Amino acid sequence: MKILVINCGSSSLKFQLIDSVTEDWLAKGNCERIGIDNSFVSYTKKGSDKVNIDADMPDHNKAIEKVVEILTTGDTAVLSSLSEIDVVGHRVVHGGEYFNEAVLIDDDVIAKITELNELAPLHNPANLIGIKALQKVLKDTPMVAVFDTAFHQTMPEEAYLYGIPYDMYVKHHIRKYGFHGTSHSFVSRTACEFLNKDYDKTKVIVCHLGNGASVSAVKNGKCIDTSMGFTPLEGLIMGTRSGDIDPAVIEFMAQKENTDVKGVINILNKKSGVFGLSEGFSSDFRDLEDGYNANKPGSTRAVKAFCYKVLKYIGAYAAAMNGVDVICFTAGIGENTSIVRKLICDNLGYLGVTLDEEANSKRGFNNVISTPDSKVTVAVIPTNEELEITRLTVNCLEKNGKLCK
Ligand code: ADP
Q1: Which of 285, 341, 360, 365 to mutate to test the pocket of ligand 1 (most atoms within 8 A of CB)?
Q2: Residue 405 banded pLDDT, cuts 50, 70, 90
Q3: Taking 70 as the threshold, does the pLDDT of residue 315 lie above it?
Q4: Position 1 pLDDT exceeds 90
Q5: What's the 350 CA to ligand 1 centre distance in angstroms?
């Protein structure tokens, strides 16, 4: 089966065409600057170099038209016609409490995703635009929604409730939802397969450390806690997001900086994290790693604070699961920045973690980075959210009796 995986943002649309049998991608790309000047598509056909294709994309419908053209015509083509696409898997950020698994998209699902717009105003509306634009060109092709929040729906009440009046949860659905679910699910399961452990009997902590970053506790194949919350602002210190903060800071900062709640939330989302801590030096760990190695105070401060927060969450989740068997690092920083893994693992001696420094210097593949006598296995597991979306999409078709080939 050929699956088109779509990840639609407000000004971008990432796509990947994947063969579900080989699980290999055939083509992938990103429509960038949709609705802005100088929009273009970066595109790679399997076996060819990446190309940037200029394309006027004033809206997402035009972007989809361009994607269709690229996939089906000229040198870039990988399909003879659109009918070769068997199913579309859409990444949808917020599934609220409605969705604990991937679902076939119908009018009711669209209505529920729309209702959830208020919980994810930056993401769900863009995801819906992508769904509707694809529906226009692929009228009879089944489409599946795969939610970032779904994997975390197994969290118990004591983990997802905030300590606020209970009717705030009942009336307004204010609770922890968690994000990056497809990554946490993919990485925890892949780690157990790779390590020959029974997923249903293993306690895994996944550290998804990218620009957005979160940690999750996966006990016996089910997520029982995760660091992101009602929004992706909670939890770890991230590229530009503050992570956990005393809510009283918001009013205080608003007064001192002569702004309002919205202004403060903007600072916490866009000007904080390692970017803010390094005094605006960089949100990119490649720069921060260089700065740390050169003893630059801003980079050192940011890297240390980032690692300290991850370390605290690992401790918390080892406690929440009454132990931990496997700790995984994934995403841009988790997969590539060995100094971050070292700074964290060197402080996990109390759990019986011993780092294999040689193994920790490698990157790019599933890899155990703890020593053979380490009580907890530490592994780097590259994430692959598109592949997880593919697998969940196929599962969903199967469950609905719609699997064609
Ligand atoms: P997101 O998907 O949330 O945008 P990514 O998972 O792509 O984030 O991670 C981005 C982060 O990973 C950046 O801080 C970047 O510096 C870091 N990163 C990516 N590649 C490397 C690399 N080769 N070496 C060090 N850090 C890297």
Answers
A1: 285
A2: low
A3: yes
A4: yes
A5: 29
Highest CATH level, class, for 2-147: alpha beta
Instruction: Give the atom of ligand 1 at the shortest distance from the alpha carbon of 289.
Output: 25
Task: Out of 3.30.1340.30, 3.30.420.40, 3.40.50.300, 3.90.650.10, select the CATH number for domain 198-385.
Answer: 3.30.420.40
**pLDDT given at position 12:** 87
* Angle in degrees, 0-180, between the axes of helices 297-320 and 338-345, rounded to the nearest 10: 50
Looking up tokens 């300290």 gives 308
Domain boundaries, the chain: 2-147, 198-385
Q: What is the pTM of this model?
A: 0.95
Mutate which of 214, 237, 333, 388 for ligand 1 pocket (most atoms within 8 A of beta carbon): 333
| Closest residue by CA, ligand 1 atom 7 | 332
Q: Is 382 helix (H, G, I), strand (E, B) or coil?
A: coil
The strands making up 377-380's β-sheet, listed across from edge to edge, are: 222-226, 213-219, 203-209, 326-330, 377-380, 367-368
pLDDT tens figures, 244-273: 999 999 999 999 999 999 999 999 999 999
Asked whether the domain spanning 198-385 has the same topology as the one spanning 2-147, the reply is: yes
**Residues involved in catalysis:** 148
Residue nearest to atom 4 of ligand 1 (CA): 211
Q: From the CA of 109, how far away is ligand 1's center (Å)?
A: 33
CA of 239 to the centre of ligand 1 (A): 9
Q: What is the per-residue pLDDT across 75-91, written as a single tens digit (0 to 9) for each? A: 999 999 989 999 999 99
